[in-house]
Amino acid sequence: MTSLVLLLDPLPADTTPTHVELESTMRFVAANEPILTALDAGAGRGDGIFETLGAHDGQVRGVDAHLQRLAASAEKLDLPAPHSDQWRSAIVRVMAELPSDGQASIRLTITRGTDAAGPTCWVTGTAITAEFPERTAGVRVVTLSRGYANDVGESSPWLLVGAKTLSYAINMAALREAKRRGADDVVFTSTDGFALEGPTSSLLVRKGNTISTPAIQFGILAGTTQADLFGFLEGEGFTCDYRKIKVEELHQADAIWLVSSVRLAIPVTEVDGQTISTDLGLTGRMNAALLS
Ligand code: PLP
Per the UniProt record, which EC number(s) apply here (predicted)? Predict the structure, then answer.
């Protein structure tokens, strides 16, 4: 597996550097070179944000959408606004060093860093050689409570539920709990009975000709893959909407997917032990559209 690390000296968002100045703010470091101090708030507290972008045959998907979400996460955490041209150039620099065919993932990270030095910023690029059998085989999910009511994003913004923070320990613990229960993945639910999202994915639910996803004001991450897929699915004649989805609706769904930037659209074959029908033809077209 090829992994690249590009370290950034973050620029204030309101500066307009020349190309040369921009390039001088970033440098590749060896993948095993330490780039954080032990005092970095990202390492010590998970205090920071990230984005993961998918790439295919040299093209990165959704750069603007990911940079917008990075900026939205920074604002939620009171971190300095990212300089979007700097991050865009960094993505281009990393992509240029990766193989020009096949899949890859690009990860953007900003930690709060240290008081003395400020935020620590870097971009990694990794060529993906693994297959994704779950794109056709699907995944079995369990519903797990997130322990919050559906309106937590509005009532308790300090819980940062709509920001893509580095604090994914809970999400990873939920995935381990799913494995313990004999499943592969998770749909988080609210304490008042609504389906939210997966630990690393957005949720799509089909009933008849309508494909729904939980609205983001209800404390979930705004998914870039879900947004791209809604464009594709509307072109296929589906009606797409954002709304509250009751957990019971999962059991009555005609199809369910977990979708995200690298794994893409994964059909759900089982919810809490109950079989869910899958549409491999449509799933295949969704993934082909994302990869095109
Ligand atoms: N929701 C959560 C909690 C995630 O971590 C992710 C991606 O990692 C998503 C949704 C899907 O977002 P995207 O489609 O932009 O990758």
Answer: 4.1.3.38
